[in-house]
Amino acid sequence: MVINTNISALSSATALAQSSSMLAQSLQRLSTGSKINQPQDDAAGLAVSMRFSAQINRTQAANDNIGNAISFSQTQDGFLQKVSGALNRMSELAVASQDTTKTTSDLAKYQAEFSTLQGYITDVASKDFNGVSLFGTTGLSVTTDGDTAKFGMSAVNLSTGAYSTVTAGTTKVDSATNAATALTNVKNAIDLLATDRGNIGANISRLTYTSDQLGILKQNLSAANSRITDVDVAQESSQFARYNILVQAGTAMLAQANAAPQSALRLLQ
Q1: Are residues 211 and 238 located together in one domain of the fold?
Q2: Which of 18, 30, 36, 103 is the most interior residue, by most CB within 10 Å?
Q3: Residue 258 lies in a domain
Q4: How far apart are the first and last CA of the chain?
Q5: CA dist., res. 30 & res. 8, Å (int)
Q6: Sequence-distant (≥ 6) Cβ neighbours of residue 191 within 8 angstroms
Q7: Host domain of residue 88
Q8: Are residues 127 and 94 part of one domain?
Q9: What is the Cα–Cα distance from 168 to 171, expressed in whole angstroms?
């Protein structure tokens, strides 16, 4: 029996410190919902989780870009629907102007409406989406994943080709001869418009599939990251109860160990 060194108390204190540390860790995990709160909890898991988190964020950013590109294409098509209506009306005017029973005054009225529609198409050609030209000469390159993949959308230029011909000042319906030429120009513009709207529809379809794909990728990455970082509440609750009991038992045993050397006083009486 010794007095200066209480081995039992030291052992009890060490066990109590370990149990208290595990109890604090379990409490922190239950409070945060995460198994990794410090790097030492799982160094390798933390490294993998950080890469997953970064990839998830990049995937979401790419999906946001695709959503904006879809909105851009839908805005384009919205304007082109109205342009289609204008061209259809212009083709009617071109045919009506070839009616030999129409007077010069009638043709002038047709020409006035025709010119107004030409101006409308010219105005649409200058529209933009968030400062980016809707109908410029350069197509857009859209990010389709969190790395370097791109999807190129072809440009729809309302200021060139058959569009510029149909809106030119030389395209008129003020006479039967000019109206026949105008009709040819309008039909060419309608054909080009059909092609452009088809391309826009294909772009929207492609981007929608890509957006869905990125959504599934993000979901799977989040699930993988969850398995690394998220705490199993049921399991951790059981561990918490265990450590809590160990701390209480360790505290009681430390008190007993500290009281044990007092029995040496009886030998000195």
Answers
A1: no
A2: 36
A3: yes
A4: 15
A5: 33
A6: 162
A7: 52-138+148-228
A8: yes
A9: 6
Q: Which residue has the higher pLDDT, 130 or 263?
A: 130
The pTM (predicted TM-score) of the whole model is: 0.80
Instruction: Looking at the structure, tell me whether residues 74 and 201 fall in a common domain.
Output: yes
Query: Which long-range contacts does 21-30 make (Cβ < 8 Å, 24+ apart)?
Result: 22/239, 22/243, 22/246, 23/240, 23/243, 23/244, 23/246, 23/247, 26/236, 26/239, 26/240, 26/243, 27/240, 29/231, 29/236, 30/231, 30/233, 30/236, 30/237, 30/240
d(CA 90, CA 96): 10
Question: Which pair of structure tokens corresponds to residue 54?
Answer: 């970064």
Together in a domain, 12 and 130: no
Q: Which of 113, 112, 135 is nearest to 124 (CA)?
A: 135
| Residue 38: pLDDT over 70 | yes
pLDDT for 128 beyond 80: yes
Domains contained in the chain, number? 2
On whether residue 174 sits in a domain, the answer given is yes
**How far is residue 239 from each of residues 15, 41, 148, 214, 245, measured CA to CA in Å?**
16, 16, 45, 38, 10
